[in-house]
């Protein structure tokens, strides 16, 4: 039986560059997010994060899907197994096709989340989503991670360890920095999905991201899809900015 990650990956192999780019609707009010997503020509995927979800509620997923968009629901679930399972079951029933969970929730919680996501999608007639395990947030810098969280592992060690934990639990992919994509792709061949935030196109400011890479570089390193926010959403012409990111992927530079 084809897994959710394999199904998404199969569609990406023959996809246009636009299918590789997930635009983050962070920092927008619900009306702004819906208006923005409707105006960007060629947009295929959007990311709904905590702030937008809390303002708009679950119906924002349905509203975006009504616009013909595919939704990455980035709520980073991290709780006890039964709560993780319940959250992922409901998120899958909404029609979200990518859903984040924290890898450090552990094997039991990850397995419960995966099983419940499949059940939630099948019971509501939705596509089975790909769960993405968050390894180390791209805003973390190594010395601060070690100092504030007392984690002795280097990021280069911790990320693959958490990715392996997730794969063993049956999770379909992970979220990682683009700088870790090549190492993770060597460890986890397709169809394991690698979704990378921290993407900054040519000329874009780094902002609060500590570990970044350009769009074409990230895909070449093994990323499946890219999450891009402010370089597109804050651009003077978001459609032009989105098209420029697509062009970078098309030309490879």
Characterise the protein shown here.
The chain has 253 residues and is α/β, with parallel strands linked by helices. It has twelve helices and eight strands. The protein has helices at 4-13, 30-39, 50-56, 59-66, 81-94, 107-124, 142-149, 155-168, 181-187, 215-221, 230-233, 238-251; strands at residues 21-24, 45-49, 70-77, 98-102, 130-134, 173-175, 193-196, 225-228. The mean pLDDT is 90.
Could you list some keywords that capture this structure?
eight-stranded parallel barrel, single chain, 48% helix, globular, 12 helices, alpha/beta, 253 residues
DSSP strand content:
15-25%
Low-confidence parts: none
Number of helices: 12
Structural class by helix and strand composition: alpha/beta
Q: Enumerate the strands of the largest sheet in spatial order, edge to edge or round the barrel.
A: 1-2-3-4-5-6-7-8
Describe the global form: globular
Q: What is the share of helical residues?
A: 40-55%
Largest sheet: 8 strands, parallel, barrel
Report, as a whole number of angstroms, the end-to-end distance.
37 Å
Number of strands: 8
Radius of gyration: 17 Å
Mean residue pLDDT: 90
One letter per element, helices H and strands E, the order comes to: HEHEHHEHEHEHHEHEHEHH
